[in-house]
Amino acid sequence: MTTLLTINGATRRFGGLTAVDSVSTTVAKGELVGVIGPNGAGKTTLFNLISGFTPLSAGEVHFKGRRIDGQKPFRIARLGIGRTFQNLRIFPNMSVFDNVSVGAAGMLGVNAAGAVFGGKGRSEAISRRAWAALEQVGLQGLAGELAANISYGRRKYLEIARALAMEPELIILDEPAAGLNDTETRELAAFIKRLHGEGMTVLLVEHDMGLVMGICERVVVLATGRKIADAAPEVVRKDPAVLEAYLGVEE
Amino acid sequence: MSDRLRPLLVVAAVLVLVLGVVPAVLGAFDRSYLYQVANLALIFVLLAASMHLVTGVAGLLQLGHAAFYGVGAYTAALLATDAGLSFGWTLPLAGLGAAFVAVLVALPTMRLVSIYFAVATLGIGQMLYLVMLNWVPVTKGPNGILITSGLTLFGYDLSRPASAYFVVAVVTLASLWVIHRLSHSYYGNALRSLREDDQCADAMGLDTVRLKIESFAVSGFFAGIAGALWAHTAGYISPADFSFPQSILILAMVVVGGLGSLPGAVIGALVLILLPEVLRPVGDFRNIIVGGVLFFSILLMPKGIIGEVSALDLVRRQLGGAWRGEGTKAGSEVGWR
User: Fold this and answer.
1) In a designed cystine with B35, which of A90, B145, B161, B331 is the match (CB 3.0 to 4.6 A)?
2) Distance of CA B165 to CAs B23, B46, B70, B316, Å?
3) DSSP assignment of B149-214, as one string?
4) How far apart are CA A64 and CA A47, in angstroms?
5) Quick check: A97 and B335 CB within 8 A?
6) Is the Cβ pair B187, A110 closer than 8 Å?
7) Would you say the pTM of this structure is higher than 0.80?
8) pLDDT (tens digit per residue) in A47-59
9) Tens digits of per-residue pLDDT, A135-176?
10) Which residues of A touch B308 (CB under 8 A)?
């Protein structure tokens, strides 16, 4: 298995607070890795360090053997990392299809001269990619709807489709189950599993332990910025440090 | 009607209207004042369309647009009077001059967001206006510049009102076509995503800073083109033509027409230029009527006369710019070709 993502001693300090404290781990091609931890454990900060939204205070991040920390988010994205956001960030005043097309356009590139003078081939490629991503999540029937008008659950899939239209090698999902009910969470779990089955490498941050434990091959546990466990779900489940972090110390 | 025929008919209808019907009507009255109104309307259509790109599509609230219009007008006027260049040179140079200034403005301000960016453009607009007003040795200050060389192109004198109208109309239509292509394409989609959530667009692999600067420069370019048209057809320019109220007038056109809608910007400009002219017989009372129309139109149609969603739908259906997924039926066009 080839290593896709390497995080080496990643640290991020905000003033006196160390949100992420020398976390190291790797993600191999084709893996489905979950990151869990209590509130404030540094999960989202870790994701922002990978995708370039937050600069590292110390440490390194490598993707496909290339150092990516310190690069702008759009450059990291173009290397093949697609992501979703914790609080569902779609483009509300654009149609479902236009939302997804932005992911394809970002990767295939758009420019003013091409838009004015022909460039039909490029547009065709963007359209096809966006359509394929919509079909993947089953939203093609809503392609023309305004994104703001579709249901919350479907917007979650829309956000994932937008990242899939980038045809990334690694997809980072930041709390995709937040705000979903049990049935929707189960459907999402099945969808992520299917995506992984099709060969996608997935890094999943989740608050919902059940989702992560149920589908991930490996689980990284963070608590107060530190990595306290990094193993298969059944091992992590019995780890005393993890139990302590989640349930507190027995008096 | 076949799908391929419809866009051609729409384009033909616009051409016939602007280059056939309007000149025929103007010719029937044959008053130079009416030609001047027609030119002014077209110039403001171009100004509103250029602001539509940056404010409506890319979502950058631009409060100094008239200043770029002024940079274009002064570039053209000075090149025509001091350097003796003809319209064939002053027109593109006015556009490039305004685009150049726009890039200079954009570089430091692009990292500002929403209201902060708006205030920065307000400041820049005022600065450029004060330069036009006070740099007397070059701009002649409040006296303005008289352009006596008229409008000559490739050695032909096109200064007569009827021929000048054709020049303004052709330049405006060609510019509108470019802005249409930029707005109604995946490039336009990328600009819209900046307006919606630029951090998110960044995560999709879009170079958001480059796109913002580009849209600002293109918008400045066409404002400069409009400036050259004004300088050569009015024959006289002064700083008052490019003051802050003009920027607000252009903004009002874009908002009343429909923020993010190109047909809306065109209609908004026509309404706000032609309405005061039509109401001329009622005297000073007309300004109150225009204000009332503005107020009630935004109250009753907050999304504008043609909102963005309907505008995109209209362009997709009437101009055949859309794409259709395999196995879907006609009428479910999405995206852009």
Assistant:
1) B161
2) 8, 14, 21, 30
3) S--EETTEE--SHHHHHHHHHHHHHHHHHHHHHHHSSHHHHHHHHHHHHHHHHHHTT--HHHHHHH
4) 17
5) yes
6) yes
7) yes
8) 999 999 999 999 9
9) 999 999 999 999 999 999 999 999 999 999 999 999 999 999
10) 93
Write the CATH number of the domain with boundaries B5-318: 1.10.3470
Question: pLDDT at position A249, please?
Answer: 59
- Taking 60 as the threshold, does the pLDDT of residue A250 lie above it? no
- All residue ranges of chain B with pLDDT < 50 are 1
Residues in chain B: 337
H/E element, B8:
helix B5-16
Q: Which member of A78, A112, A143 has the closest CB to residue B205?
A: A78
Chain B from 148 to 207: CB within 8 A of any A CB: 178, 181-182, 185-190, 192-193, 195-197, 199-207
Predicted confidence at residue B154, as pLDDT, reads 84
Separation in Å, CA of B204 to nearest CA in chain A:
5
pLDDT per residue over A108-124, tens digit each?
999 888 888 877 888 99
Q: What are the domain boundaries of chain A?
A: 3-247
Question: How is the beta sheet containing A32-36 ordered, strand by strand?
Answer: A81-83, A170-174, A201-205, A32-36, A218-223, A226-231
Dist. CA B277–CA B286, nearest whole Å: 9
Nearest residue, CB atoms, A77 vs list B197, B204, B260 = B204
Out of B187, B260, B309, the one facing A115 most closely (by C-beta) is B187
Which helix or strand (DSSP H or E) is residue B38 part of?
A: helix B32-51
Other C-beta atoms within 10 Å of B283: how many? Answer: 8
Name the token pair of A16: 């006196």
pLDDT of residue B337: 84
Confidence (pLDDT) at A128: 94
- The two tokens of residue B304 are 């504008």
CA distance B121 to chain A (A): 23
**Are B205 and A166 inside 8 Å of each other by CB?**
yes
The answer for residues whose C-beta is within 8 angstroms of residue A98's C-beta and 6 or more apart is A91, B189, B192, B334, B335
| CA distance to partner chain B, nearest, from residue A5 (Å) | 17
Structure tokens at A45: 């900060």
- The CB density around residue B119, as the number of other CB atoms within 10 Å, is 14
| Superfamily of the domain at A3-247 | P-loop containing nucleotide triphosphate hydrolases (3.40.50.300)
Task: Using CA coordinates, name the residue in chain B closest to A163.
Answer: B204
